[in-house]
Amino acid sequence: MKTQEPREEHLWLHRLVGDWRFEIDCSTDKDQPPTKSIGSEIVHSMGGLWMIGEGISEAPDGTTHTSIMTLGFDPAKNCFIGTFVSSTMTHLWPYTGSLNSEGNILTLDSEGPNLNNDGAMAKYQDRIELVDDHHRILTSQMQGLDGQWTKFMTAHYFRKTN
Asked: What's the total number of domains in the chain?
């Protein structure tokens, strides 16, 4: 098998590589105030084709939360692909996505258990916005039965500097 060379889309993902700290506001219950947490993430490249982000944070209840996000680009499907797993849930979140026309927002579509915990599945979107080389914003939203999207999480990532 011939080794794949990174494409423009892979180079976009490479902008995520680094050591980051983040601040999260999460509101999964509209009757409760948002929870806040802080953490860190190390993103590294695997062969220039895959970005792997390993995050760790402290949950509001004091427990440690870990996560792994993988992102790549599949030229055959002409879309970004990836996965997300978390130590707080059993669902593997598969991603397919695309960049906006300005080239600064990657929208990743997925499907998973809805936030109402009633066993039904829902559509989700994670959006990674590159504000600049040292700041990015991750927002997560779920599509309701009425077709409307509800944002439930915003995380600001800041590149650590020496």
From this structure: 1
